[in-house]
Amino acid sequence: MPAELELCAGRMVGGDQPCFIIAEIGQNHQGDFEIAKKMIRMAKECGADCAKFQKSELEYKFNKKALERPYNSPHSWGKTYGEHKRHLEFSHDQYRELQKFAKEIGIYFTASGMDEMAVEFLHELGVPFFKVGSGDTNNFPYLKKTAQKGRPMVISSGMQSMDTMRRVYELVKPINPNFCFLQCTSAYPLLPEDVNLRVIKEFQSVFPDIPVGYSGHETGIAITVAAVAMGAKVVERHVTLDKTWKGSDHQASLEPKELTELVKSIRLVEKAMGSSVKRLMPCELACQNKLGKSVVAKVKIPAGTVLTLNMLTVKVAEPRGFPPEEIFDLEGKTVKQEIAEDESVTEESIENFNTRTKC
Questions:
Q1: How distant is the alpha carbon of residue 117 from its chain centre?
Q2: Which of 144, 146, 239, 322 is close enough to 295 for a disulfide, judged by CB 3.0 to 4.6 Å?
Q3: What pLDDT does residue 29 have?
């Protein structure tokens, strides 16, 4: 079983712990502070464990020319990419207020630090864990500095190869053992044929000492629920209040009803996973008592007869007799009292019953 880690104070993930569900608000708040608060409350009311944002210090994430690049997309909030990103970016004080609000309503709060200075701020803010977005997973200086902060890390794997993920593991593990990987494909929305849920099992095999999860950008909830059934211990999905809003992430996001259904479905699947021990369940006894079959006599069997298989058959019978799986053990046993045709073969009718072989 993969190792557990304490992702947030008092909240373990991995092993047999419940899946940790992250509602990725990102920048779907449209740059509106009140919408951001509504989305935190929505994440809480829908049952998510954590509300997550994306924090950038733009001059450290982008160079000057990237910020000055014209941005003519229908999703644009400004004439240049810099104007667009500044519209969507909250200040440090606003982040402190959002964190306070999340604490008041009882949901964990964090953000992806999209550059090293953003990580410095989030560390100062005291977030419970750092989320490493796929775009920084192969940014090894960033990873090293983030790991050195000592907070748990959730690392997405979009756009990366298994070789890169091995290198990430080898870099982070000696510095900070408290991290997990998320299978992720960076496309919005993500087509089912590009999800590759089997990577979850491969991660579990290659990295057996860390929890593994899933970050999904597909539409609907079925694939994310399947990821949990495959062992994902952390799941992250983008959320929105309205998929028709301006912004490239909304189409691949879950509205409140979908997020609620996702949480309910994940918790249902977790219950259904149950135990790996195969046994007769107490809930099956009624069905077994009604329909469970027994060994019965195919013909009249006089006392003293040595049983052969052609004397026996299997039926639903009253009273209950030997279970069908023991019919071969009865071969060669001696009958000590007559058994009528179509009657159950019971323990009382067989000599030396206690010496028979048990399956």
A1: 31
A2: 322
A3: 97
Handedness of CA 21, 22, 24, 29 (dihedral sign): positive
136 token code pair? 């920084």
Distance from C-alpha of 242 to C-alpha of 259, rounded to nearest angstrom = 12
Q: Tell me 3's DSSP state.
A: P
Closest by CA to 81, choosing from 90, 70, 73, 94, is: 70
Joined together, the tokens standing for residue 226 give 């399947």
pLDDT for residue 103? 98
What are the pLDDT digits (tens) for 163-174? 999 999 999 999
pLDDT-derived band at 344 (thresholds 50, 70, 90) equals very high
Instruction: Give the separation between CA 275 and CA 302, rounded to whole angstroms.
Output: 46
CA angle 261, 255, 271 (to 5 degrees): 20
Nearest CA-CA partner of 129 in 147, 116, 114, 117: 147
- pLDDT tens digits, residue range 129-153? 999 999 999 999 999 999 999 999 9
Judge whether 214 and 200 are in contact, CB under 8 Å.
Answer: yes
Q: Which of 13, 9, 39, 16 lies closest to 237 in space, CA to CA?
A: 39
The torsion region of residue 30 among left (phi > 0), alpha (psi -120 to 50) and beta comes to left
356 band by pLDDT with thresholds 50, 70 and 90: very low
Residue carrying structure tokens 């701020």: 121
Give the C-alpha separation, 276 to 85, whole Å: 49
